[in-house]
Specification:
The complex is a heterodimer of chains A (299) and B (338). Chain A is mainly α and 299 residues long. Chain A contains 11 helices and no strands. The chains are: A mainly alpha (299), B alpha/beta (338).
Chain lengths: 299, 338
């Protein structure tokens, strides 16, 4: 009976970690997504050691020729730019930037979105009205131009890019979570929790939150994915942080070089990375729905 | 039972504001619950039973307006209490609830035991281990195996969930437990088992119980005193035996006719024709007037006062003096269906 209570905290911790992994693992797409994300994380962490060359260093091939616009080969697996920069090294270093931007602005935005959605949905009335009209105003803002204006105002620094993205991307999650909160608020177990003397705070964060968790996880990964795409778009338009390198920024440089029609490899690799990472995030979040809904678990 | 009342409700009114107008769901309801008794509230669907209880426990939606001259629990005025104090000091600690459709009252994402532990820890300073021991004890009381506390609600059957909710209501020895339709939606066998359980629990604890149900058989069997509600008002209130042996209100008479009696199985059941009144708008006259075979002109225009016939027997009907005569007429089919 009380075996759970007697286990030490790390036993419980590792058991729950492995339990969660097993849930993701059962789903084929979730499994693929999980390992792709792990791979990108690994690359991001070890980026400076993994990159074979400096990202902005002119390369010469084995015969001593200036390696400009080289197709992927053994020497340069992802090809080179017109200035002879190694694209693989750029990709590896860009992974770090992209993951930081994605994770941080994805998490900030879900934090804002979830709280606004929960509070708005739970309390209803005037507060709901104010918060939702504010969300509506944000909905009226054209997404990319707004981010670009914010970046232009604050400056082209990584922190501001993250902030600008997070400040606008939360709107969808807030709406969806509010709707779900309203549905769950009506359920009998919330009334029962109130009868038990639970405070509003406790009801929102202990009783409603776990029930919107599947949706929250789904939107966390959507938000991360959207942040990555937004950053890529902003960078492509030249509003990224010029000091760091990102996948979108690589595409921007391709655009600047004017070699779009020639250098397909330059275009392909960052695009593929973006697609791969974003899709993996969605796969994992789909598989993860089971965690928050024990009824879906196989017994 | 003759001592001071545990819960004292005086002239409680609850109104819902809706787009179509005001619904007077509970009107001038007064009753008392003494310690160590089962007080039954009977009535058909929509008569205001649940609203009454939710009003006292402050669980109503925002469009409900409550006013009462007094709601006292152990001589403490719980009507004027601050929200946070009420939540911490009264709810669950003093008055706990087994909600209607208790089967759906467990949060699907937490283990059953955890939810009871939460209820215990929210109101006491017990540690987790202590609280879990208490849950095991409670599970034993309601007849569930204590290993089941680490199961999720969906792994429980309806009857088991119901018992878990009763266990939760007992968790911190409240003075008063409100059971809102505790057996509705369960099959007859499980119903019987739950009722037997409640009866056994009654012997072990000192708490009073308010039992709300539309099932006259259940209420007759379980309660010490019964209040019969109709159209948001209490029609008649008496000790169980008195209510069934010498009912005074035509509605009680009608209800009695509609249920089979074990002494007289051949007796034909007589239903009360018509349907419950709409509570929308201003109420004039007795709410039962339209369906009452004994009504007069006066019943249409005035609301009858509550009359105390004898100790613990209150009735609100203009013809309460004619009760013996009404009782005789009420057993005939022709009185109701003419």
């Amino acid at each position: 009976m009380s075996d759970v209570a007697h286990k030490t905290w790390y036993q419980i911790f590792f058991r729950s970690i492995s339990e969660h992994y097993q849930i993701i693992h059962r789903n084929l797409l979730g499994r693929i997504g999980f390992w792709v994300i792990i791979f990108f994380l690994f690359v991001a962490i070890l980026a400076p050691w993994l990159a074979p060359h400096e990202p902005w260093e002119m390369q010469y091939d084995s015969e001593g020729n200036f390696a400009s616009l080289q197709m992927p080969s053994w020497e340069f697996p992802a090809g080179t730019t017109h200035l002879g920069y190694d694209l693989l090294s750029q990709l590896i270093l860009a992974t770090r930037t992209t993951l930081i931007i994605g994770a941080v602005s994805g998490l900030i935005s879900i934090l804002i979105g979830a709280n606004i959605g929960l509070i708005s949905g739970y309390y209803g009335g005037k507060l709901d009205e104010v918060l939702m009209r504010f969300t509506d105003i944000l909905y009226g803002m054209p997404f990319l131009p707004f981010v670009i204006v914010l970046i232009a105002l604050f400056g082209r620094k990584l922190e501001f890019v993250i902030l600008a993205i997070a400040l606008i991307i939360w709107r969808t999650s807030a709406r969806v979570i509010r709707a779900q909160t309203i549905a769950i608020k009506q359920r009998q177990f919330i009334v029962a929790a109130r009868a038990r003397g639970c405070s509003d705070f406790r009801i929102i964060y202990r009783h409603i939150l776990p029930n919107v968790l599947p949706l929250l996880l789904l939107y966390t990964s959507f938000n991360i994915a959207w942040s990555i795409i937004t950053e890529a778009s902003a960078s492509f338009l030249g509003f990224g942080d010029g000091e760091t390198i990102s996948w979108g920024g690589m595409l921007y440089e391709l655009w600047l070089s004017g070699k779009t029609r020639v250098a397909w490899w330059w275009f392909a690799s960052p695009s593929l990375c973006i697609i791969l990472l974003v899709t993996s995030l969605v796969f994992v979040s789909r598989a993860y729905e089971e965690v928050a809904n024990p009824r879906l678990r196989k017994r | 039972m003759n001592s001071k009342p545990l819960l004292e409700v005086n002239k409680l009114n609850i109104r819902y504001q809706t787009q179509d107008g005001e619904i007077h769901a509970v009107a001038d309801v007064s009753f008392e619950v003494f310690s160590n008794e089962v007080f039954g509230i009977a009535g058909e669907s929509g008569c205001g039973k649940s609203t009454l209880i939710k009003g006292i426990m402050r669980l109503l939606p925002e469009n409900a307006k409550i006013d009462a001259s007094t709601i006292k629990y152990k001589d403490q005025d719980i009507d004027c209490m601050r929200e946070s104090v009420f939540r911490e000091e009264v709810l669950w600690k003093q008055i706990s609830l087994v909600p209607q459709s208790a089967m759906n009252s467990l949060n699907p994402v937490y283990k059953v035991g955890e939810q009871i532990v939460e209820a215990i820890q929210a109101h006491t300073s017990q540690g987790k281990k202590e609280a879990r021991e208490r849950v095991a004890e409670l599970f034993d009381v309601v007849g569930l195996q204590s290993e089941l506390m680490d199961s999720f609600p969906h792994e429980f059957s309806g009857g088991m969930r119901q018992r878990a909710m009763i266990a939760m209501a007992l968790a911190i020895d409240p003075g008063l437990i409100v059971m809102d339709e505790p057996t509705t939606g369960l099959d007859v066998l499980v119903q019987e088992r739950i009722l037997r359980r409640i009866r056994e629990i009654r012997k072990q604890i000192r708490s009073s119980i308010i039992l709300i149900t539309h099932d006259i058989a259940v209420i007759a069997e379980m309660s010490d005193r019964i209040a019969v509600m109709y159209g948001g008002r209490i029609m008649e209130q008496a000790k169980s035996l008195d209510l069934f042996e010498s009912p005074c209100h035509p509605y009680t008479l009608g209800l009695k006719n509609a249920f089979p009696s074990i002494n007289n199985l051949d007796q034909e059941l007589i239903s009360i024709p018509g349907s419950p009144p709409s509570l929308l708008g201003l109420q004039v006259g007795c709410p039962f007037e339209a369906r009452c075979p004994f009504s007069s002109e006066r019943c249409k225009n005035d609301i009858p006062e509550v009359v105390v016939k004898e100790k613990f027997h209150e009735v609100s009907c203009f013809r309460h003096m004619d009760a013996p005569e009404l009782r005789e007429h009420a057993t005939k089919l022709s009185t109701w269906h003419y």
